[in-house]
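To whoever picks this up:

The parser on our side crashed when reading a file containing two proteins. I've narrowed it down to the boundary between the first structure block and the second sequence. Both blocks are reproduced below exactly, byte for byte. First block:
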Amino acid sequence: MTALWTSDEAAAATGGTATRDFSITGISIDTRTLVPGDLFVALKDQRDGHDFVAQALEKGAAAALVSRRPEGVAPDAPLLIVGDVLRGLEDLGRAGRARSHAKVAAITGSVGKTSTKEMLRVMLGAQGKVHVAEASYNNHWGVPLTLARMPRETDLAVLEIGMNHPGEIAPLARLARPHVVMITTVAPAHLAAFGGIEGIAAEKAAICEGLEPGGTAVLPGDLEVTPILLEAARAASARIVTFGEGEATWALTSAIVTPDVTVGTAATPPGPLDFKVASPGRHFAVNALGALAVAAAMGADPAVAATDLGTWAPPAGRGMREKIALDPLDEALSFDLIDDAFNANPASVAAGLGLLLAATPRNGIGRIEKGRRIAVLGDMLELGPDELALHAEIAGLPGMAQVDLVHCVGPRMRALYEALPVRQRGEWVATAPELAARAAQLVDAGDVLLVKGSKGIRVSLVVAALRALRKAPAQGQTEG
């Protein structure tokens, strides 16, 4: 396997000292996922990574990036010693970007950045050697880690950049030096740190500060804060491309949402374009259109990208839909689960409800004659002083009246519970485990159930409990 970094290259990139020669084929920050040949990076987070260096080396790490020789590590162990481990990782990422000839795209946004990044992984896969950020590696260590992991032969790279506080995006964008940036949308999220939507827009727009000369900014064209985004792009001398459902460079002219797929038609600079996303949701069509614009700006063939997009479906926690069988002998006795439990803010809750409304319950097969649309909604965190009002306003979202039952999780969601009509009130609980313990009572065959909430409120526990209701087919039976 080709070396990702040799000891000489890594030492030159970081200004560190290699205790002996080594070559690495990957980079890890977690001994649980480390594979032989990795460089283990001893970051400090909840625990000091230096405490795990010996374990990493025992598991086959080719070397460790450290600021000191940890206790219990042999004198001849392969180490790259730097003054500060995070700074060393940043330097390695900076060098990884500098040596690469890849076209680089960077994505940010209040909602949809990870899903859009994963769409691009699929779209670009047949058009070159692609390197894409793992999971949601979008913060102060995730971005440099992605760059440091980038193979030198990469043709196309896609990074994700996130934020929680002002001033986070611009340094990461300058580190990434993208040729194309995309902002998926700007919505109320992290309001506690920014005070208003304009502050969030300005922070998102700071991604333009990292653009390479002659770079392209792909921006939503139909937001109230679009002028803020356009101003930042112009200040960076970017080529501006807009996307959305109104007037835009890439304009969505129609979106047909079915229980299983969303089919979009768009007016684009290359000409009319049809595309399909293997999941219901108009917001998926809008994000996919922006991703197609990014792919085109990176030099990819948009027609090929649109074709390959049809194989993408949202991952677990981000709108993934699955059927949970309740009877091993009769697959009709099942319910549909929409797992959107990774994160939540008002805009993403509205999008999640769109997935629920696009689904059709089945009648006459469960204990209850009528199949139901059910939402389990957990607290939306970091919304600032207006958080209770923002939770209560969910009751007035378009289509909310079509939801049969709403279960609320968390102290902030009490505001929504009290704002709901009595006919829609399910249960309110303070914590997710309380509701997870009653999973079997929440759902019936024929129902469609959405679970949505901020990661910190742990409604993923409800998802796990609902999945645990699945009955495997009896011996001799196969799943349909």
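<<boundary where parser fails>>
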Amino acid sequence: MRVDFVFEFPRPTMPNVVYMGGFQCKPAEPLPQHLEEFVQSSGEHGVIIMSLGTFVNELPADMADTIAATFDKLPQKVIWRYKGERPATLGNNTLIVDWMPQNDLLGHPKVKLFVADGGTNGVQEAIYHGVPVVGLPVFFDQYDNLLRLKERGSTKLLTINTVDKDNNFLEAIQEVLTEEPPLTTG
């Protein structure tokens, strides 16, 4: 089964079942120079990375603007995997990239938070590297994956349609950043 026993709820399995979750996880490699310089420029506040996976390249303009404005209010630097039109409210602390070495960023000691869609690979890499998550599930198994992390205390779970309501997104990020992370590195 492509899940990790740490991630699963207890259930009976047959003797021939092998849990192979996290098989793609590995120690972080050094970042490309431009990303390393950006990460190092974060100082004591660290970095937040955001990716909504390979299926979501673009968001509605108002939602992208809300996310960018939220990031602009934070002292952390942000690396956001996003291919849509540049949000009008994008701050100087946010770097938009078409692609990011997600595993290598999650393994970097300055990364403090992962804003993620809850895809299996991202969730397992976050567990492996001990990075807390603010989850924004979009479809498929993402909500279920994030719910499992929430039950273990390492995720604040939102829905994508509440990002722009009552500062939910900002409050979720601040809550996760100020709590002691329950995950340990793999």
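After patching the parser it read the second block fine. The mean pLDDT is 90. The radius of gyration is 16 Å.
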